[in-house]
């Protein structure tokens, strides 16, 4: 009887220890799976890519590393590490968009699905975006933009995404100023007509008038002889 009582006490202690040490689904924050899809019309050539495992932060698994690279902990909970962006970056130079659907077991024995968009080849580093208000682990996502390191692109390429290099940020097109036409040499004005011919013609005219006037006066002062009857 005493041994039976001791066994029951030990069983209760072991059960209490397991409840304390082993995290429940509601306490666990790690994902159990992630499915990558998208990438434009037709999606991935081989179809969606699914990763399963222990997604608990710090576990070192492929699933946990993907979540850390994608900035899940920065935008999933309020107490996540830094790295999120305050506002949406420019829509240009992002490249194709993919979607990672994270699966989180919850305390109700079901699973929560959280979607996160990813631009692996964006200029300046991969971008991710998680919408706020998605149900997860008895709460909702904080959401936001996150600028990841190039390690996220490498990880996704290793998982099956196309091996593409990051985009190069395009410089804003500047309006080309019209070329200033070369200054054309001003047309040389025609040389002024010579003045001396006009002066000479004037002098000749004056002399002719003067000679005519002198001849007229001379004839009036010396009249011819009267005709003889």
Structure description:
The protein is an alpha+beta fold. It has a domain at 21-159. Helix content is 30%, strand content 20%. It has 5 helices and 9 strands. The strands form 2 sheets. The protein has a 7-stranded antiparallel β-sheet with strand order 2-1-4-5-6-9-3. A hairpin with a 5-residue loop joins strand 4 (98-105) and strand 5. The longest helix is centred in the last third of the chain and has 26 residues, at 196-221. The radius of gyration is 50 Å and the shape is rod-shaped. The protein starts with a helix and ends in an 8-residue tail after the last helix. Residues 9-27, 173-183, 185-192 and 224-229 have low confidence and may be disordered.
Summarize the helices and strands and which ones pair or pack:
Blueprint: H1 2-21, E1 31-38, E2 49-55, H2 62-69, H3 72-76, E3 84-85, E4 98-105, E5 111-119, E6 127-130, E7 135-136, E8 139-140, E9 144-147, H4 150-159, H5 196-221
Q: Could you list some keywords that capture this structure?
A:
7-stranded antiparallel sheet; 30% helix; 229 residues; rod-shaped; disordered C terminus; 20% strand
Anisotropy-based shape: rod-shaped
Please give the radius of gyration in angstroms: 50 Å
Helix proportion of residues, in percent? 25-40%
Order of helices and strands: HEEHHEEEEEEEHH
Low-confidence stretches: 9-27, 173-183, 185-192, 224-229
The largest sheet is: 7 strands, antiparallel
Class from secondary-structure proportions: alpha+beta
Side-by-side strand order of the widest sheet? 2-1-4-5-6-9-3
Percent range for β-strand residues? 15-25%
